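sry for the spam today, last one i promise. struct tokens for design, 316 residues
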């Protein structure tokens, strides 16, 4: 099982009048180096903290903006890429009619929101991009049917999720761990969160969430174009994941993206050398299946620890 986020790699080459310059960004120190007269372009590795997803993201935005301007094209685009996907996700969630649903990262052509609203749900679409909001509002206003969709400009990290019965998170959303963590804390008990994960080659282009790190009940359904939809249902276990942690909470009880402060750990020289000491901030990244090691971050360094050790590290 790989890290929480798959590494994004692509080629970048910039030509000067008399030579070519290749840029290489080191993900550890973000240092940029230029190499002149090298006929082979370098690879650029983007870490999970870098939110730019260049070629794929721009291509999708272009198609959706074009679909907004040309309604028949937008209708066809939505039907091809979203209708069957949303239908399968609705079956997965089994929501009651008139449920309040939030779509995070709805984009300029809010296809997911449209298909959800047509099923009788109360839908709010959120996006942090001004241009996307403008296009989405215009597209909805030009539709013959009034679906009652609310469009808001807001970052997923800042939304109050307590008033929603279900949350949809788009594939391209770059801050999925933070949004999932906040949504799980705030959504009501029994609330449902659907997020789209890349499969296969798409893992090189989009953030990939390791679902094994969630303690909540979850279901997975494979989609076309190397994607999968994952449903997480907030249960009783989630109630302890709030700003006031249970005093007996250990690293094993955290989930993907969860941050905490170490309250106590075994008196071990190796652990102390790695920074796993009382008062240190720790972030849970992922865990391997079948009781495998747990991956955590401390002081910007990722550390794999055994399950028995993880159970002895108390956090709060």
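last one done:
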């Amino acid at each position: 099982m790989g890290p929480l986020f798959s590494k994004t790699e692509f080629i970048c080459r910039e030509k000067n009048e008399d030579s070519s310059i290749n840029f290489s960004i080191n993900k550890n120190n973000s240092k940029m180096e230029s190499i002149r007269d090298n006929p082979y372009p370098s690879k650029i590795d983007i870490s999970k903290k870098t939110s730019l997803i260049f070629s794929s993201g721009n291509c999708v935005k272009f198609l959706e903006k074009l679909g907004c301007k040309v309604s028949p094209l937008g209708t066809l685009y939505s039907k091809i890429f979203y209708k069957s996907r949303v239908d399968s996700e609705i079956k997965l969630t089994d929501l009651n009619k008139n449920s309040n649903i939030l779509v995070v990262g709805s984009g300029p052509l809010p296809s997911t929101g449209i298909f959800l609203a047509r099923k009788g749900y109360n839908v709010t679409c959120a996006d942090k991009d001004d241009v996307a909001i403008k296009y989405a509002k215009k597209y909805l206003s030009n539709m013959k049917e009034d679906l009652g969709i609310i469009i808001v400009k807001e970052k997923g990290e800042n939304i109050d999720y307590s008033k929603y019965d279900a949350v949809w998170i788009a594939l391209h959303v770059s801050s999925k761990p933070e949004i999932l963590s906040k949504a799980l804390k705030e959504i009501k008990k029994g609330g449902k969160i659907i997020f789209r994960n890349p499969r296969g080659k798409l893992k090189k282009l989009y953030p990939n969430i390791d679902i094994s790190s969630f303690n909540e009940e979850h279901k997975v359904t494979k989609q076309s174009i190397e994607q999968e939809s994952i449903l997480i249902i907030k249960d009783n276990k989630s109630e302890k994941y709030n700003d006031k942690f249970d005093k007996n909470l250990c690293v094993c009880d955290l989930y993907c993206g969860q941050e905490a402060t170490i309250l106590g750990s075994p008196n071990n020289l190796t652990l102390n050398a790695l920074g796993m000491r009382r008062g240190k901030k720790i972030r849970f990244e992922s865990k391997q299946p079948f009781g495998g090691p747990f991956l955590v971050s401390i002081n910007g360094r990722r550390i794999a620890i055994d399950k028995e050790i993880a159970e002895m590290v108390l956090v709060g």
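The first strand starts at residue 8 and ends at 11. ok im logging off now
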